[in-house]
Amino acid sequence: MDHRDAAETGAHAAYRPISDYALISDRRCAALVSSEGSIDWFCRPRFDSPAVYGRLLDPDAGHWSIRPVGPFHHERSYVGETLVLRTVFTTDTGTAHLIDAMAIGPSYEADTGVRLRLASRAPRATLRVLECTAGEVDIEFVFRPRPEFGLVKPIFTNIPGGILATGGPVRFALTCPVPLDFSEDGATARFTLRAGDKHRFVTQSAGLAEPPPATWTHEAVDAQLEETIQGWQHWSDAHPTWDGPLPHLVRRSLLVLEALRYQPTGAIIAAPTTSLPEAVGSGRNWDYRYAWIRDASFTIQALAAAGSTDEAIEFFEFITRAAAHYHPENPLQIMFGVGGEHDLSERELTHLSGWRGSRPVRIGNAAWQQPQLDVYGELLDAAWQLRPHLAHLDPAARRFLTGVADAAADQWGRPDQGIWESRGDPRHYTYSKLMCWVALDRAVKHAEVIEIEQREAMTFGRDIFKGEELSPEDFERVKLAPGWAAARDRIREAIETHAWKPELGAFGAAFDGDDLDAAVLLLPAVGFLPGNDPRVISTVDVIAERLREPRGLVRRYASGTDGLEGDEGAFVMCTFWLAQALALTGRVERAREVFEEAAACANDLGLMSEEVDTATGEMLGNYPQAFSHIGLINAAVAIRDAERR
């Protein structure tokens, strides 16, 4: 791609496409690097901490760029199967290579040779190595940290080997081999690299209660970069090769999931960004830097199928520990901070303009307080998928999982906000009932592991078949039948009676109304009905006809059904669900076509966002999106297995 010379202006920064960014991570936080060599998003010290570079959401919210002066051409790729980024800049006068990485520390214990967990000793440092390989290249260097989402302009002071930026709760030491000009706006430089020249830049942070970081020697930078490349490559090599469709994208998706997994706890965040809009200017801007229970079964299925069993177990353990206080009479919280935090109160950052002017910019997520009944099924399905590894659950974990099954039996008849976290009125969503069925189905099959003692009676929704119209009063809690199995069977009857819409020829989004929801594509995947059931085949076809856009991508649901104004893009995960459902219904060739259309949403580095603009094909939503990469893996598994059959 060619780039014209452009000043560091708001218009230039604010309109970089989402697909233009690469991801680097040290499994504690992540950064997004543009194709022009600018780090425009970086939160420290955790994924969900305030941003230090926030130009992604506002031109004045901070960035760190290293790029040629004048027009240039760029090519970029990751080094092997790692998250170390190489960008090659070519100008009329020469070529320069920029390596970007977040240091992850050693892979082995120096004294014993014991293998360490990936990034368990990450030094909280960002490495940038610039080398001229031919001719000469004029370089522009801009360092503008803005802690607290752009509220703080640090003070710069010289230290041996670089500068120290002080302001806000974190101090940054910049190792820099070139003289810098300081101003209130930041630190800048222009210099020329000639063939063979190599400059190493490092930022390392420390809290105010810690000693300020020191600058790094050339040897230390080179050693850390080599350790980082080896660490990621060793992790990739330790996992089986993929023998199904699109192996490069499947392997890249696994790396993305590992990059989004918070090393100290095993939590996997939905995305490392907040407030990238689902449609420009729509107000559909949410903070995704948290761990959702909903992702549990999808993630664990993907990780286990791809040979990442240890990572799947760690994520499951995080979810069960974070939610361990749970009482079955209340809805289970659906999401947590990466350290297990429960209070994720939402607020708006009014000083930020948002990506392409899409306000508001939100931090926190009010959905943490929503009742969403599907999480019971996703949690117990995760336990079911990991059953060979959970034979020795401690009593507290058993009690917790038993309580989750009880809650599914008790609460399945209540309305909720559904999988898509509608901010409209609660409804009796089909997918929510389906996943309560999954919870009880897995509990029955797994009772010898999760039950402490024989269950004698459950409470759950009363007979909802009395009367054609449903209302909250129809779902009072009364004792109706003993056991998880009885509750499971009643849910099946309710779904088959009230969710099936003969006039549509499909299972609808909810018991009321005749709208559609792509989430019901999972009916065969969770085992509720076989793929050859005529109702499943018909549902898949109706959703493909009515929710699929001309570009081949699938919307979650029709506009105007979620309590929010405005429209949104097509949902990448739902398109992979359609491919998976087609494979499960035996239409493997069509499944391949849909799968490849969804996979084409990935950028040149194999990264995917949450949604895609149906008119332009441009990425929308938070990025990179774990859900999209999980969907790719699970669809690839379904297609591979169907082709083998």
From TrEMBL:
Keyword Cell inner membrane: no
UniProt domain GH15-like: residue ranges: 250-636
GO biological process: trehalose catabolic process
SUPFAM superfamilies: Six-hairpin glycosidases
Entry superkingdom: Bacteria
A Pfam match: Glyco_hydro_15
Alphabetized Gene3D superfamilies for the sequence: 1.50.10.10
Alphabetized InterPro entries for the sequence: 6-hairpin_glycosidase_sf (IPR008928), 6hp_glycosidase-like_sf (IPR012341), GH15-like (IPR011613), Trehalase-like_N (IPR045582)
MF annotations from Gene Ontology: trehalase activity
Residues in Trehalase-like N-terminal domain copies: 16-187
Keyword terms of this UniProt record: Hydrolase
PANTHER family, A to Z: TREHALASE (PTHR31616)
Name of this chain's protein: Glycoside hydrolase family 15 protein
